[in-house]
Amino acid sequence: MGSSWRTALDKEFMKPYFQKLKEFLIAEHLTHTVYPKLNDVYSWSRLTPLDSVKAVILGQDPYHNVGQAHGLSFSVLPPTKLPGSLRNIYKQLSSDIPTFKVPTSGDLTPLAKAGVLWLNTCLTVRAHNANSHSKKGWETFTDAVIRAVLDRPDGRGVVFFAWGLPAQKLYDRLGIDEKKHLVLRSPHPSPLSAHRGFLGNAHFKKANEWLRKTHGEEIDWVALNSVPPSEAVRHI
Fold first, then answer.
1. What is the model's pTM?
2. N or C: which end of the chain has fewer CB within 10 A?
3. What's the chief localization of this chain (predicted)?
4. Annotated catalytic sites, by residue?
5. What per-residue confidence (pLDDT) applies to 216?
6. Which residues pair with 186 in a beta bridge?
C-alpha cells in the first residue's frame, strides 16, 4: 500500500473486521484463484497518493476473468479487450473532451497518476464468481478510504462520480458535503444501463469545469492518449 494511504488507514488494519477479512482471504487463496493478484490489490493507493486525489470513480467488484483486474476500477491491462463499461466511459470522454481519442488499451494507469482514484468497493474476487468477496469486510475498509479523502488535512473538495444506484447510496450514506465536493450522479456505464442516462451525462466536462472554478486545475483526461501502455504497465 502507498505510504500516504497506509498512514491514513493505519487504525483500520487492527480492527476485528479487517482481521476476519484477512483470515477469509488467506483461506480463499489456499483453495481458489483470486483476482487481482496480491501485489495489485492496492495498486490504486500507489498510483494515486491521498493528497493527489482530484476525483473518485467508484466501481463495485473487480473483473473476475483471467487477465482483467489489476487493482483499478473499470481498468484492464493489454492485451485484454475493452469491457463494455469501459467502452462507454471512453465514448463519453470523447464526447466531453474534444482532444480525447479513444485508446485501444483499457489501462487507466495514466489517469490514476493524474489524480483519479479508481476504487472498487470490494478489492478482491474469486475467479469467475462475481461478488464472491462482497460482505466480507472490504466495504467497511473502502468506506474508510473515502472518509480519508473527505477528511484530508488540506480540506480540498473533490469530484465524486456516482454511477449507478450502489455508488449513489454509498455516497448518500457517507453524508458527503455537496457544498464542498461535487457529486455527479447518473446510471452506470454498463451496456445494460448506459443508454438510460450515462451516455450524454457530460460528467467529465462538468468535473473539469468545477475543478477549474474551485481549484484552478483540471484532470488531464487526454493523459490516456500520451502514455504508451508498456510504460504504464511498468509503473504498476
1. 0.93
2. N
3. mitochondrion
4. 61
5. 97
6. 163
List, for residues 93-152, the tens digit of each pLDDT value. Answer: 999 999 999 999 999 999 999 999 999 999 999 999 988 899 999 999 999 999 999 999
Judge whether 9 and 145 are in contact, CB under 8 Å. yes
Q: How far apart are CA 218 and CA 123, in angstroms?
A: 27
27: domain range? 3-234
Is the pLDDT at 228 greater than 60, yes or no?
no
The CATH code of the domain that includes 140 is 3.40.470.10
Give the orientation angle of helix 84-96 with respect to helix 203-215, to 10 degrees: 60
Number of domains in the chain: 1
Q: Residue 232: pLDDT above 90?
A: no
Residue 57 one-letter amino acid? I
Place of cell 504504464: 232
Expressed in angstroms, the distance from the first to the final Cα of the chain is 12
